[in-house]
Write a structure and sequence with these properties.
The complex is a heterodimer of chains A (232) and B (292).
Chain A (H helix, E strand, L loop, with lengths): L1 E10 L2 E11 L4 E6 L5 H8 L7 E6 L2 E2 L5 H6 L2 E4 L11 H8 L8 H10 L1 H5 L10 H13 L5 E5 L7 H16 L3 E6 L2 H7 L2 E6 L2 E7 H6 L1 H7 L3
Parallel strand pairs in A: 3-8, 3-9, 6-7, 7-8
Antiparallel strand pairs in A: 1-2, 1-4, 4-5, 9-10
Helix pairs in contact in A: 3-6
Chain B lengths: L1 H30 L6 H19 L2 H24 L7 H23 L4 E2 L2 H4 L4 E4 L2 E4 H23 L1 H11 L1 H6 L4 H26 L2 E2 L3 H16 L4 H20 L6 H15 L14
Antiparallel strand pairs in B: 1-4, 2-3
Helix pairs in contact in B: 1-6, 1-9, 1-10, 1-11, 2-3, 2-4, 2-9, 2-10, 3-9, 6-7, 6-9, 7-9, 10-11, 10-12, 11-12
The chains are: A alpha/beta (232), B mainly alpha (292).
């Protein structure tokens, strides 16, 4: 479904992503794990068209999207929930959801209901300004907003960041539910334990390179991973 | 009674400043550019109105031609001068805007000479004066205030309720996140310039009806004052630009009415200095804090 082939990404002179290749098949949950600065967010930004790869190819559903503008990539069914949620803090919860449906002809009531069903807290707060939501609610809004575009592939960047353990559990439960409902998921996480637990497959990144890959179960058993990421 | 008539006079001038300040503030909100060419768009609008009225002698056609002329000019400027600098440092964009301003002034001088021309204000808004309980109000004042307020209500509706208006707010808050929603940022910026310069076109007609002359440098002082109004209200904020515009207009008229007409410009710029010293975010400006 998504195929990333040997991409190199630079920030000015800094070579942030050094020849990364991986793929995501339909129906999978794939995790990218690694420490800060490993290049995980850069990879997602490059896939969604915010950044450009200097070389390499990215294809989605068989189409080359490495030169496509970001706003057109969303239309093809690829939604990106960015790091730090990036909801529109000055707009209401409802307006944020409407922005999520920007690519659609109109904001359908059924879609809003679908999001409210998954995230009942958002329904209670629909006319509130998004900046007044708690961190967990903001993450839910960011995910709900992405769902409004009916994505085939949902990319989540650090959905557990800054959240209390109980909320992290809740967010991962929601990810599983979305997956069971047929959405393919590409997950970037520093929380390696949780990310490996739900992943079909995972890739481990270090300073812009993939150093290990395998199924979620294999990697969580690997001594190297245990030592470096799972604290033991 | 004198107070009341000065108040109305101030509201008239203020509503023009508000229209111009809106253009400044909206463009700043979306691409962080202080568009110093905005005042000169109004100057060009004054000439467009002159030329169109001379050609058609029809005030309605002249008004339409002015608005269309200002919109086309602003969109061309955005595409040619500002768009290539989207990724450049903001100072480059600012210097470019000053360059565009000088270019427009000299272009006007080249086409229409540096001579001041009379504007046919009474042909566009007839010189009728109403007497309301001893208070004389000209039709010019009534039209100016009504047209400005209507334009602002329409603008508020567009920005708050329409899909494009919401996209403008989204881009202005977070360009990258807006792209991830599928919003075409370049189109949204173009729409912002269209709306801002349409308001400038309306402002040009109203300003020329109040001060019925046109010359190539008329835009610079007007533009600077509207800029002060935008800063006073909180640059980037739409309601702020409206409030700031009215505040500057009223201040100017009252300073004149107490006999200090030579000081009006000084007072306006003193306001800018005081605002920047005491509350740089203006009345309605967002503070620069970020929630992580």
């Amino acid at each position: 479904m998504l195929k990333v082939d040997d991409i190199h990404v630079y920030y000015g002179n800094i070579h942030a992503v050094k020849g990364i290749s991986f793929h995501v098949d339909e129906g999978e949950i794939v995790s990218l794990i690694g420490a800060n600065g490993a290049g995980k967010s850069t990879i997602l930004k490059t896939i969604s068209g915010i950044l450009r790869a200097k070389s390499g190819n990215i294809s989605f559903l068989g189409q080359d999207i490495s030169k496509t503008e970001a706003h057109k990539i969303v239309r093809q069914g690829l939604a990106h929930v960015p790091e730090g949620r990036r909801i529109f803090l000055k707009m209401t919860v409802m307006e944020n959801l409407e922005m999520g449906a920007f690519t659609r002809k109109e904001v359908s009531k059924a879609d809003i209901e679908m999001v409210f069903e998954r995230f009942p807290r958002l329904k209670e707060r629909q006319s509130q300004i998004a900046g007044t939501l708690s961190g967990g609610e903001q993450q839910m809004l960011a995910m709900g907003r992405a769902l409004m575009s009916h994505p085939k592939l949902l990319m989540l960047d650090e959905p557990s960041m800054g959240l209390a353990p109980l909320l992290v559990e809740q967010i991962f439960d929601i990810i599983k539910t979305l997956h069971n409902a047929g959405t393919t998921i590409l997950l970037v996480e520093q929380n390696a334990g949780m990310a490996l637990e739900i992943a079909d497959r995972a890739y481990v990144l270090e300073t812009g390179r993939i150093i290990l890959s395998g199924t979620g179960a294999e990697l969580s058993q690997s001594e190297e991973i245990k030592r470096a990421y799972l604290g033991g | 009674m004198l107070f009341l008539s000065q108040l109305i006079n101030g509201l008239q001038l203020g509503s023009i400043y508000a229209l111009v300040a809106l253009g400044y503030s909206m463009v700043y909100g979306i691409i962080m550019l202080l568009n110093f060419a905005h005042g000169d768009i109004i100057m060009m609008g004054g000439y467009f109105a002159l030329v169109a009225f001379a050609a058609t002698t029809n005030p309605v056609l002249a008004i339409i031609a002015t608005i269309v002329g200002c919109v086309v000019l602003a969109v061309v400027i955005e595409k040619v001068a500002y768009k290539p600098l989207r990724q450049a440092p903001r100072i480059s964009l600012l210097i470019t805007a000053i360059g565009v301003s000088l270019f427009l002034q000299n272009l006007a001088q080249l086409i229409w000479t540096a001579n001041t021309r009379a504007f046919p204000s009474t042909e566009i808004i007839p010189a009728i004066t109403f007497n309301v309980g001893g208070l004389s109000i000209s039709l010019n004042i009534i039209v100016t205030i009504c047209v400005s307020v209507l334009s602002m209500v329409l603008l508020a509706f567009i920005v708050q309720k329409t899909k494009m208006g919401k996209a403008m707010r989204a881009v202005s808050e977070d360009t990258e996140a807006a792209q991830l929603m599928g919003i075409n940022v370049n189109n949204t910026i173009t729409y912002t310039f269209i709306i801002g310069s349409a308001l400038a076109g309306i402002g040009a007609i109203l300003y020329c009806c109040r001060y019925p002359i046109v010359n190539p440098t008329m835009g610079s002082l007007l533009g600077l004052k509207a800029f002060v109004a935008a800063v006073l209200g909180g640059i980037g904020s739409i309601p702020g630009a409206m409030i700031g515009g009215f505040a500057i207009g009223l201040a100017e008229v009252f300073v004149t009415s107490i006999g200090l007409s030579a000081w009006t410009d000084a007072v306006v710029f003193a306001v800018l200095i005081v605002v920047l010293l005491i509350k740089p975010t203006g009345f309605m400006g967002a503070s620069m804090t970020e929630k992580v």
